[in-house]
Structure formats: structure tokens, C-alpha cells
Amino acid sequence: MKKALLLLSCALLFSFSVQAAGDAAAGKAKSARCASCHGVDGKISIPTYPNLAGQNEVYLDNSMHAYKKGERTGGMAVVMVGYVRSLSDQDIADLAAYYASLGEK
């Protein structure tokens, strides 16, 4: 049982690291339409929206995919769906990489 849990944990960790393979430079070029709510460089301009700068890359990637699939419905989900609907998986990965990189010093 312990071996099975260990193997499952390793498989999940591996899949998360593979999933987050974005290009931060490409993400920066794609981020202009995000700035109206999430601010320039991922720092909010409107208090009802979250900062994206420095967020975990995998979290951002998973969140955008969840909005796109309709799995996130709270808060401003309707607005987010409109933005992420047209994004490819690579666009999402690039944006996640870009915003995650803003927290690096």
C-alpha cells in the first residue's frame, strides 16, 4: 500500500512539472489583455482581482485550465472564461511562466 501511494505521488509530481513548460518571454508578449484587471506586471489595479506576480506557475496553469473547462465558477469566473476561452494550452503555459517569473529576484 505504501509503495502504491509513493508511486502515485511521484507520478503526480512528475505530471505537474511537465505541465508547467511555458516560455516567460512569450507570456509577457501575451499578457497585455490581462493587465486591465491584474495590473501591469501582474500587480493589481482593481482590489477585487488577485495579484498574479510571483504566483506558483503550476497553480496559474491549472487555474486557467479550470476556468476554460468551466470547473471554476466563483467570483469573477464569468469574466475569466471570456478571456481564457480562446487561449491554447501553450498560451496558458506561457502566461503562467511569465507571471510566476515576476516573483523571482
From TrEMBL:
<feature type="signal peptide">
    <location>
        <begin position="1"/>
        <end position="20"/>
    </location>
</feature>
<dbReference type="InterPro" id="IPR008168">
    <property type="entry name" value="Cyt_C_IC"/>
</dbReference>
<dbReference type="InterPro" id="IPR050597">
    <property type="entry name" value="Cytochrome_c_Oxidase_Subunit"/>
</dbReference>
<dbReference type="GO" id="GO:0009055">
    <property type="term" value="F:electron transfer activity"/>
</dbReference>
<feature type="domain" description="Cytochrome c">
    <location>
        <begin position="22"/>
        <end position="103"/>
    </location>
</feature>
<keyword id="KW-0479">Metal-binding</keyword>
<dbReference type="GO" id="GO:0020037">
    <property type="term" value="F:heme binding"/>
</dbReference>
<protein>
    <submittedName>
        <fullName>Cytochrome c</fullName>
    </submittedName>
</protein>
<dbReference type="Pfam" id="PF00034">
    <property type="entry name" value="Cytochrom_C"/>
</dbReference>
<keyword id="KW-0813">Transport</keyword>
<dbReference type="InterPro" id="IPR009056">
    <property type="entry name" value="Cyt_c-like_dom"/>
</dbReference>
<dbReference type="InterPro" id="IPR036909">
    <property type="entry name" value="Cyt_c-like_dom_sf"/>
</dbReference>
<keyword id="KW-0249">Electron transport</keyword>
<dbReference type="GO" id="GO:0005506">
    <property type="term" value="F:iron ion binding"/>
</dbReference>
<keyword id="KW-0349">Heme</keyword>
<keyword id="KW-0408">Iron</keyword>
<keyword id="KW-0732">Signal</keyword>
